[in-house]
Amino acid sequence: MGITVASAVPHPALCIPDLGPRKREAAIHSMIARAHQAGAVRDIASVLDAVLMREKLSAGVAAKGVAIPHARALAVLEPRWIVARSARGIDWGAPDRQPVQLVTLVLSPPEWSAATHLEAVARASAITRLVRLRTRLLDAADAEAMLALVRTAAP
Fold it and tell me: β-strand 70-72 against 61-63: which pairing, if any?
C-alpha cells in the first residue's frame, strides 16, 4: 500500500457547500462528523480533541478568509481532506480578523509520517492561495463543482 497525498483528496460526501456553524470549534466538529459518516473517522470526539489541541499549540493557516486545521490521529482510518465553505463566515480568530469562508480540514492516520501529513497540509493550502481559485470555490454551485475544482487544482 503506497501512502500518497492524492489519496486524501475528498469525494463529494466530504465537500460541504454550506457549513452552518459560526464558531470554529462547532465548524470543526461538523466537518469531523461528516468524515465519520463517510467512514474516514472512527471516533468524532478523539479526532476533535486532536484537531483542537493542534490548533491550540500552533494554529493552522487562517488568513484571507481561509482556514486549514489539521491533525494526525489514531481514530483517523483514512487520510482525508474535508472541504467546506461558509457564506456567512466563521469567527476563527484569524490574525487578519477576516471571517473564514473556506475551510479545508486535513486528517491523517497515524501511519502517515509527520512529513507526509505536512505535505498534505501544504497542498491543501496551495489550492486556496490564489484569489481566483478561492473565488471559484466560493461561487461553485454545489459539492460536485467544489470537488471538481479541488481535484483540478490539487498539485
Answer: unpaired
153: pLDDT confidence band, cut at 50, 70 and 90? Answer: confident
Distance, C-alpha 71 to centroid of its chain: 10
141-150's contacts with Cβ under 8 Å and 24+ in sequence apart are 142/17, 143/12, 143/13, 143/15, 143/16, 143/17, 144/12, 144/15, 146/15, 146/17, 146/83, 146/85, 147/10, 147/11, 147/12, 147/15, 147/83, 150/9, 150/10, 150/15, 150/81, 150/83
Average pLDDT of the residues in 121-135: 88
CATH of the domain spanning 5-153 = 3.40.930.10
Q: What percent of the chain has pLDDT over 90?
A: 63
| pLDDT above 60: residue 5 | no
